[in-house]
Amino acid sequence: MPIRPYPIPMDDFRNVLTLSPLSLVEIARRFGISRSNLMGLLGGNRTLSDDRLLQFVKWVGLVGADTLHLTSGIHFWKIASETQMEAFLHLPTGILPESLRWSLVLEFPPLDRDWIHLKADIGEQCWVLLSLRPVFFVLLRDRLPGIGRPVALMYLQKPLKQILADTSNPGLAVAWAKQPQTLTLVDAPMRDTHAADLSVWMAWARQKLAIDTSDISDQIYPPVTESSEDRLDPATPCAQAWNLLAHRLDVAGAAHPDIVDIPIFPMEQFGQYPSGMVRMDRNWLGDTLLELGKKGRLRCYVRENGVESVIVALSATTRCGLPPAWVSSPSSDRYLIWRDQHLEIAVQLESNGHCIGPVVAAWHRATTCMVQ
After folding, report:
1. What is the mean pLDDT of residues 241-253?
2. For the domain bounded by 235-364, which CATH number is listed?
3. Is 0.90 surpassed by the pTM of this model?
4. Residue 302 dihedral angles phi and psi, to the nearest 5°
5. CA–CA separation, 179 and 127 (whole Å)
6. What is the DSSP letter of 222?
7. Sheet containing 126-132, strands listed edge to edge, beginning at the edge strand earlier in sequence
8. Residues in CB range of 35: below 8 A, 6 or more apart
């Protein structure tokens, strides 16, 4: 007999739990269920009754049936692994709306450089405090440009660990009534008291993470100098982006001589890091393109609506960022051009644009499809 499904979208619920800074063991302990029951629930087994599950959903800070939404309060999420990054990127708009105002959040004195804290305004009396490792901040900034340009500077009234350790909260979220004692705007006395440390931290954030703080009022303008130790090696987030995508695929299969993994980039706008990965074999690509793919000289560019996808050859191995300009003699009917901060497909090489490479393969998806 098939297992009767739970009355909520379990994938979305699972992703929210994955983002919690608390371990699943601690979550189970605080709510009052066994670890085995929680793991069984997340594995798709009916280890809780419907009523108990809905109590759990409310305790986590969610409400809804067919779709889930965050309840009032301050919710705490963490991204420190590929699994948590995947969970965040798969959240539906009902939980994480597309257009958000982000604020930069600090613990005072602002000395911590292991975490980047951001506050998102989800709705009326509903905030999310998102804590990221710097490398994941860089990757997420490429997906959500708004997080790289915060609109305000805020601070935690108590250390985050102390807030998370407080078991007096009626669930995973902090009640909105406690917001003034939890997370508030940085005022003039606070800036003056910590001016030196704040100046150094803001300089590091600008220089290492490319955070644009121009929208933050009354900010401390830091010195323009930077040391080589403060710079984020661009290869680090690039490697992390590939690791994030590679675990979706069978890594053993990727080493097969007849198979290559090709990174996917958006066609409408330039993306610093790949947003996906597609696996192709020799029978589809042919010997020449397979060899280019093995050398890291192929990219797949996909239109936002998914109707058109193209494979582009690169002049040199380029895992992330803008590849060197294609300078070979004309060899294709179409080329991908970077011009005026946009990507476009042109029928010939032109001097007023940066040619990424020739389109060596393309396919179109039908806009309508009848499935029997």
Report:
1. 63
2. 2.10.109
3. no
4. -125, 135
5. 9
6. P
7. 73-79, 126-132, 116-123, 102-106, 153-156, 183-185
8. 24, 25, 28
Residue linked to tokens 């629930």: 41
For 82, the enclosing helix (H) or strand (E) is helix 82-89
Closest CA to 299 of 271, 257, 330, 327: 271
Amino acid identity of residue 284, one-letter, is: W
Domain ranges of the chain: 72-230, 235-364
Q: With residue 62 as reference, give the H or E element that holds it.
A: strand 62-64
Strand partners, 298: 313
Q: CA 267 to CA 298: how far, in whole Å?
A: 14
The SS3 assignment for 213 reads: coil
Tokens 């699972």 sit on residue: 14
Residues facing residue 268 across a β-bridge: none
pLDDT digits (tens, 9 = 90+) for 140-158: 888 887 899 999 999 999 9
Q: Do residues 355 and 349 lie in contact, with contact meaning Cβ atoms separated by under 8 Å?
A: yes
